[in-house]
Write a structure and sequence with these properties.
By secondary structure, the chain is α+β, with helices and mostly antiparallel strands. Helices cover 48% and strands 12% of the residues. The strands form three sheets. It has a five-stranded antiparallel sheet with strand order 2-1-5-4-3, sandwiched between helices. The chain has a four-stranded mixed sheet with strand order 8-7-6-11. Strands 9-10 form a two-stranded antiparallel sheet. A hairpin with a 6-residue loop joins strand 7 and strand 8. InterPro entries: GAF, GAF-like_dom_sf.
């Protein structure tokens, strides 16, 4: 079993390789010691997965994009301009019934998953679907995650996957870089049978990535593709909206305090990376119809507060990467780190806001927290949530906390009283 090189070298027996790696995986989970005869890239990934708390039984990648939000991210991504080329090179070339093709962004979110319908249906069982984030922290060792993390092509063969429910699959992936900045903008992936980790599959996906980069360069020169954002590849600016009437944007001594209306606008634009028209933004800000000129005035005032290079127009959108504390809560929930998630969750999303779009985001996050806690949280996390105003009126969480606590716990009478009050 080579330490470097292809996951499935020419001349090797895939069955023997699968069994050897599976045995190494069992030893690693039992002892925590990295296997000596394992490819370096896989060994390092397993160790990271263990530290991150990835479940070795079941990969649980978070579903971060769906519906309109997925369509917005697709439309805003440069890959939308070269999708026909990707389909010709990978989807049409794939052995139908053996491989599917995934196209992801730089964060690991799958924007397109295409190929034979039956194979895609099988992949759905492990949430290898459009909108799911297959970064290592949520999904464990996999080729798209490694390609993005390492900045070069990667393969994962069968039992090299950290999570057992993915070990019947193999994959090869290659990152795609912006032709001007060199920043990684996404990843191309072949996933399927053992042959998806063959030298041929790696060569195919590498060649496709190079062709896509060349096509993007030609489109950029012809003016058919917008220039890369100056902020591409930079760390996202933090946006804190949990438990605050307004918001705090930025960090490192350059944070800006925002009032309710400006906080609403910034959050809505962060939630719609493809941008919003003045009419679309207005509908999410006001319960009644509002003139587009009013929205433009509010955005103009926000632009002056934030300074140049943050807000773009036509449509209104963020020109810099932004990461909200909402996303951090979701990431920790996806990893099963419930207590850490509740530590980040300082309260509802912009509780003073009545903007319809913000109310939707607020209610969606509360539902996600309740669902995650009710499914598999420990007693301490359930009790922490039950003590909060958000959780005190949630009978499912209160009931789960009662079941998790020993009968003699001093917290039981109070939880029962809250349950009785909710039933009245």
């Amino acid at each position: 079993m080579p330490a470097i090189g292809n996951a499935w070298p020419r001349g090797s027996d895939p069955g023997e390789l699968r069994r050897a790696v599976a045995a190494a995986h069992e030893r690693f989970l039992a002892s925590g010691r990295p296997p000596a005869r394992l490819r370096d890239v896989v060994r390092d990934s397993w160790q990271r997965c263990r530290v991150l708390g990835v479940d070795p039984e079941t990969a649980r990648p978070p579903l971060e994009l769906s519906g309109d939000r997925l369509e917005e991210c697709r439309g805003a991504h440069p890959f939308s301009s070269v999708l026909p080329l990707i389909r010709r090179l990978l989807v049409d070339a794939a052995d139908h019934g053996s491989h599917i093709v995934a196209v992801g962004d730089a964060a690991g979110r799958l924007l397109w998953v295409e190929g034979e319908r039956g194979l895609r249906a099988r992949a759905e069982r492990m949430l290898f679907v459009e909108g799911a984030n297959w970064a290592e922290a949520g999904a464990g060792t996999n080729a798209p995650a490694l390609a993005l993390a390492l900045g070069h092509e990667a393969q994962v063969f069968a039992s090299e996957h950290f999570s057992r429910n993915v070990q019947s699959w193999s994959c090869s992936a290659a990152p795609v870089r912006d032709p001007d900045t060199g920043a990684v903008i996404g990843v191309l992936d072949l996933t399927g049978a053992d042959t998806a980790a063959s030298p041929y599959a790696l060569a195919l996906v590498r060649a496709a990535a190079a062709a896509v980069e060349g096509e993007l360069r030609l489109l950029r020169l012809a003016g058919a593709l917008a220039p890369a954002s100056p902020a591409a590849g930079t760390d996202p600016a933090p946006l804190r909206v949990l438990g605050r009437d307004g918001a705090l944007f930025g960090g490192d001594g350059h944070a800006v305090e925002l009032g309710v209306r400006h906080a609403e606008i910034l959050l809505l634009l962060a939630h719609h990376p493809g941008g919003l028209t003045a009419e679309g933004l207005g509908a999410r800000l006001h319960e009644r119809d509002v003139a587009a000129v009013t929205v433009r005035a509010e955005v103009a005032r926000l632009r002056r507060l934030l300074g140049p290079g943050v807000l773009a127009s036509r449509p209104y959108r963020l020109s810099v990467p932004v990461r909200t504390d909402i996303e951090e809560v979701r990431r920790l929930l996806a990893l099963g780190r419930h207590r850490q998630a509740l530590g980040v969750y300082q309260g509802p999303v912009l509780p003073a806001s009545t903007a319809p779009g913000v109310v939707d985001i607020r209610e969606e996050l509360a539902w996600e927290i309740r669902t995650a806690l009710g499914r598999d949280a420990d007693a301490e996390s359930l009790l922490e949530w039950a003590r909060r105003p958000d959780g005190r009126d949630d009978p499912r969480v209160l009931d789960a906390a009662l079941r998790a606590l020993p009968e003699g716990s001093p917290h039981v009478p109070l939880l029962r009283a809250w349950l009785r009050r909710g039933a009245c």
